[in-house]
Amino acid sequence: MNILQLEHVVKTYGTYRAVNDVTFEIPKGVVFGMLGPNGAGKTSLIRIITNITKADSGKIWLDGEPLNSRHPEQIGYMPEERGLYKKMKVGEQLTYLARLKGLTAAQAKESLGYWFKRLDIVDWWEKKVDELSKGMQQKVQFVSTVLHKPKLLILDEPFSGLDPINAQLIESEIRELARQGTSIIFSTHRMEQVEEMCDHIVLINKGKNVLEGEVKAVKQRFKENLFRIEYEGSLPDSLTYDNPVFNIKNREDHRMTVQMTDGTKTNDVLQKVIGSGVQVRSFNEILPSINEIFIRRVRETIESE
Amino acid sequence: MDKLWLIVQREYMTRVKKKSFILITLLSPIIFVAVFTIPVLVTLFAGKEEKSIVVKDDSGVFVVPTDTSARATFTLSQAPLDSLKSSYKSKGYDGVLHIPVIPQSGEVRLNYFSEKQLSLSVVGYISDKVAELAEARKIKDAGYSEAVMENFKTDVEIDQEELAFNKDGTLVQTGKKNSAELATAIGFISGFIIYIVLIFYGAMIMRSVMEEKTSRIVEVIISSVKPFQLMMGKILGVSAVGLTQMVIWIAMTFTLTTVATSFLNIDPASMQGQMGPMQQPQPDVVASQAGQVFEAIASQNWGYILPLFLFYFVGGYFIYSSLFAAVGASMGDDQGESQSLSLVAMAPIILSIILISPVIENPTSSLARWMSIFPLFSPVIMPARLAFEPPLWEVVVSMLVLAGSGVFFIWLAGRIYRVGILLYGKKATLGEMLKWTFSKE
Fold it and tell me: What's the CA angle centered on B280, arms B275 and B285, to 5 degrees?
């Protein structure tokens, strides 16, 4: 079951095609990364999903239903900039936003009570937003995004401007929500985060979907058959010269990076090394980072145009 | 629709609870009434500062006055002037007034000897009084009686009696007293009130829209409600704030003035005495003028004027607040550059208040006619004309145009608003705004 499904979505602003026939799906309960360079069309897509703007053409389903005006109540959206009224008090403002999402006053109070205690910000109820630091505001914003228990959470650069402590706090909250079954879409430039937290990704460039899939599968797709081997002693010539199983790309201080030749398997590599008499300390496949995949794919799409 | 109500509530409560709002709303009527009553209070309680003047009257005209409006007491003395000058102080007087023999014609110069100065009002009083007495003497000497002279004085007033045709075609006098001064006053005041309100609250809405845009809160809200709901909620909420303020002002000013006048027992004549040191009109003249004014006020067709005033107030408010909302939504990040856009919205209002004078001067001119029909000017201009009783068909046409335009402008602003609030960077040109009007949702 998919929480979100997009089919041939197009959005044009004047003569500019911000979203150029995008199709992908997001399974339920996963943490999904939406990556892309600046101006790629991520924000436009997010605005279509959150019902802020309507697509020019294409179909969108939320949890099996065509997107309609009641759906925003099931979605939590945190824009990149701090979207809060500066002069309004925190408690008052969050209650207002909750009620706009369809909660009753009582439900809002209960939910806010829970979150304020959980994030340890009970003292902030009466404070005005502009009295808080950037990181504190981000916490408040986070609460406004989740307090109506949305099925789908869309976070646009949620960690920007946060110190490590607060970033860690938000991260653990996100993980907990994911564990509880909330589907989460991350829109970010920070690839390390994508590595750590996302199960699936989609890469948007120039309004098009240029890559999608499960992180593990994507890495496999882009892997270059590289392995890192740490060993003791010296390497015999059988490994370094005329080696049909692999090529040594790089070697320093009892650590080498080798590239497996086409057609051979991982076990063959290990066997070759062990068979040559070298003591193996560790043996790891080197998978490309999302960062590398991103750069490669963007470059590929530019070249193909 | 309850989301709209939520927005209206929020827009209303956040503004009404602000310290600045409470301060301005409560203080303004107090200050307004104080400006009128404090001088009275001061003179009443500090007013034992009466001058005591000894008068050497060589002319024989002086009579000690019986009215108390002068703040000076006069005592006649036959002593020689020089001895009065040296002894007045020890005798407890503040100064010596010498009235010389009055020549048949020409200016009369009185002399006042004292260590201290006389106030402007006493000086005025004395010169007026002595002039009065001297005139009376001259008249008597010429052989006429005072009664005859009173008859020569002719006070001319114009009573405007309204004529109207009855249903059966007969001409009758309706009994309504027209008054040019009153109509003009009403005209200016109405026009001015509406002008101030439109600019003040229009700017409030524009600022709010801009704040939401720059703080990006609008994106969060628009993911829950439609942009049009947010815009209307804001317009309605701010209108409620304005109404609240008006009501409090009217109620407070009314109560405070009533309390003040009854407490201090002020009547129009003495009020004027405090205000105008130069003129000292006869009490009965003032009373009759006041009476005329009250009569004219009472006879105005308030049942007609007030509801219409309210209609134009509301209509003008909706047109301009939606315009200001659209302008706010089109502002770019560079606020200085975008100011020009807000001037475009303010220009018609400013033009109306500038042209209110010629309209009131000439309420039936074609300028007045066109301006009271054109919807951007009519909210200020038509109410100004109402006391001059413009033809009914003109009023009806003007009202219909205003109502239709109100709906149109709200729709237009809604279209511009919903696109503008999500765009960031440079401000929109008028051409772009036009495109937004017709772009799909």
Answer: 105
Place of tokens 């309420």: B363
Please measure the distance between the N-terminal and C-terminal CA atoms of chain A and give it in whole angstroms.
35
- Shortest Cα–Cα distance, A72 to chain B (Å): 6
User: Measured between alpha carbons, how far is B211 from B215 in angstroms, rounded to an integer?
Assistant: 6
Please state the ipTM of this predicted complex.
0.76
pLDDT of residue B280: 42
The C-alpha of A220 sits at a distance from chain B's nearest C-alpha, in angstroms, of 37
What's the token pair of residue B414?
A: 């809604």
Residue with tokens 């209307």: B232
Q: Which helix (H) or strand (E) holds B95?
A: strand B95-99
A185/A192 Cα distance (integer angstroms)? 16
- B38: which 2 tokens? 């404090």
The answer to whether the Cα torsion of A57, A58, A61, A66 is positive or negative is positive
The distance between the two most distant Cα atoms of chain A, rounded to a whole number of Å, is 77
**A229 contacts A262 by C-beta, under 8 angstroms:** no
Please tell me the predicted confidence (pLDDT) of residue A154.
93
Nearest residue in B to A73, CA atom? B224
Asked whether the beta carbons of residue A85 and residue B215 sit closer than 8 angstroms, the reply is yes
B224 touching A (Cβ < 8 Å)? yes
Task: Measure A73 CA to nearest chain B CA, in Å.
Answer: 7
Cβ atoms of residues B417 and B228 within 8 Å: yes
8 Å CB contact of B224 and A85: no
The CA–CA distances, whole Å, from A121 to A86, A117, A127, B109, B130 equal 17, 6, 11, 85, 82
Across the interface, of A79, A99, A101, the residue whose CB is closest to B216 is A79
The span from the CA of B404 to the CA of B118, in Å, is: 64
- Top residue of A51, A52, A134, A152 to mutate, by most chain B CBs within 10 Å, is A52
Q: How far apart are CA B117 and CA A59, in angstroms?
A: 92
Distance, in Å, from the CA atom of B92 to the CA atom of B331, rounded to the nearest integer, reads: 74
Q: What are the tens digits of pLDDT across the range B335-364?
A: 676 677 888 888 898 898 888 888 888 888
Instruction: Scan for tokens 């007034």, then name that residue.
Output: B97
pLDDT digits (tens, 9 = 90+) for A179-199: 999 999 988 877 777 888 889
B215 touches chain A (CB under 8 A): yes
CB A182 within 8 A of CB A4: no
Contact B355, B187 (CB under 8 A): no
Neighbours of B255 (CB within 10 A): 12
- Minimum CA–CA partner of A49 in chain B: B223
**Worst-scoring range by mean pLDDT, B217-231, B273-287, B369-383, B414-428?**
B273-287
Inter-chain contacts counted by CB atoms under 8 A, chains A and B: 62
Mention every residue, 6+ apart, whose C-beta is less than 8 A from residue A20: A10, A41, A206, A207, A208
Tell me if B216 and A81 make a contact (CB, 8 A cut-off): yes
Does A276 or B35 have the greater pLDDT score? A276
Interchain proximity A100–B215, CB inside 8 Å: no
Q: Which residues share a beta bridge with B163?
A: B173
Nearest CA in chain A to B422: A52
Q: How far apart are CA B395 and CA B385, in angstroms?
A: 10
Residue of A nearest to B441 (CA): A54
Shortest alpha-carbon distance between residue B228 and chain A (Å) = 12
Average pLDDT over chain B, rounded to an integer: 80
Q: Are B216 and A97 a contacting pair at CB < 8 A?
A: no
- Provide the sign of the torsion angle of the four alpha carbons A279, A282, A284, A289, taken in this order: negative
**In this predicted model, which residue has the larger pLDDT, B232 or A134?**
B232
